Amino acid sequence: ERIVVSSAALKKNLASVSLRNVPDRPGVAAGIFHAIAAANIIVDDIIQIETGPKLATISFTVDLHTLPEVRRVCRKLFRQMKSTTIECEKNLAKVSVIGLGMRVHTGVAEKMFAALAEGSINIRNITTSEIKISCIIDKLDGPKALRLVHDAFDLGRKKKPIAKT
Amino acid sequence: ERIVVSSAALKKNLASVSLRNVPDRPGVAAGIFHAIAAANIIVDDIIQIETGPKLATISFTVDLHTLPEVRRVCRKLFRQMKSTTIECEKNLAKVSVIGLGMRVHTGVAEKMFAALAEGSINIRNITTSEIKISCIIDKLDGPKALRLVHDAFDLGRKKKPIAKT
Ligand SMILES: C[C@@H](O)[C@H](N)C(=O)O
Ligand SMILES: C[C@@H](O)[C@H](N)C(=O)O
User: Fold this and answer.
1) Pocket test residue of B24, B33, B74 for ligand 2, highest count of atoms within 8 A of CB
2) CA B147/CA B155 separation, integer angstroms
């Protein structure tokens, strides 16, 4: 098994914006992120799930201090679309494990989620790629989450930070 | 601007499983992916969005041929939880752009979404990281999507596949 979890990271001071009941047809995502890019807003991660026939929820994270501007841009965008709602959450953090070949086994995701569960930390959003698994959690859970994940994957300061299974 | 989109990729023969109205409390994600790992199912990407107080939707992609087994594992898991529903989608593909420093500007996401919109391709799910933006689309849109994204980011076979902006 060639999975290598090499490090864990904590990103603080995040806010999330969830756009619910977004019309699920071509061009909508492009329009949203064009407006956001035009306002020079930096987006951390983007998640979208289809929620029903012709509807989707798009959730993305931004630095907390940009939230007022993001809200303004989104409200303007959806003025016409009465069904789309904008929900903002402050006080979030993102804990991630970074590695290589993580997609080969679900084992790494399971281990990370279990580590957070051990600390009774609620996982609010999840996004993954082959080299990174990120969980959005409450800001206050941040430092504890990082510690739990470090321990679960044996990533200590004194050790070589590669855990092979 | 140090964004470098170096390549695009198409992953075919994917199926997605969406678990809706999953209880949003610590330990649930760990339990789900423990059962999936125990069944030796390989998971491609995992997305989770909170959908209401104490509820979340978890959506993940798997290779199409593993879908029957995934369904079996999920049904068993949620036998007790009457509110959780399992939705499976076949005939999906994932088109991705890969690069470095992509999170610094939303511009890359916008450009990718716009390229797909040009081809009237509906983006069904989205997941991102600093080095990768992935869109789940209908399988039939796959080859066209890859071509559109290649063109949008100037990634040709004859050219050096790095597009700096
Ligand atoms: C919802 C949004 O992603 C839409 N499906 C699009 O293609 O732009
Ligand atoms: C829904 C699920 O992710 C849950 N919040 C957990 O922490 O496990």
Assistant:
1) B24
2) 9
Give A146 to chain B, closest Cα distance, Å.
16
> Which of A26, A45, A49 has the CB atom closest to B57's CB atom?
A49
Do the strands A85-100 and A43-52 form a parallel or antiparallel pair, or are they unpaired? unpaired
Q: How far apart are CA A120 and CA B27, in angstroms?
A: 7
- What is the pLDDT confidence band of residue B157, given thresholds at 50, 70 and 90? low
**3-state DSSP assignment of residue B162:** coil
Distance B147 CA to ligand 2 centre (A): 37
Contacts of A117 (CB under 8 A, 6+ apart): B26, B27, B29, B30
- Across the interface, which of B48, B103, B116 has its CB nearest the CB of A123? B48
Write the burial class of residue B11 (CB in 10 Å: 0-12 exposed, 13-18 middle, 19+ buried).
middle
Q: What is the pLDDT of residues B32-66, one digit of tens each?
A: 999 999 999 999 999 999 998 899 999 999 999 99
Contacts of A121 in chain B (CB under 8 A): 26
Alpha-carbon distance of B157 to A45, in angstroms, equals 29
How would residue A129 be classed by pLDDT, with cut points 50, 70 and 90? Answer: confident
Q: pLDDT tens digits, residue range B136-152?
A: 999 999 999 999 999 99
> By the 8 A CB rule, do A99 and A134 touch?
no
Closest atom of ligand 1 to CA, residue B126: 3
Residues A128 and B61: their CA atoms lie apart, in Å, by 11
Return the ∠ at Cα A92 (arms to B17 and A46), rounded to 5°. 45
A94 in Cβ contact with B11 (< 8 Å): no
| CA B28/CA A151 separation, integer angstroms | 20
Distance B40 CA to ligand 1 centre (A): 32
- Contact yes or no for B105/B133 (Cβ under 8 A): no
| Ligand 2 pocket, residue B89 CB under 6 Å | no
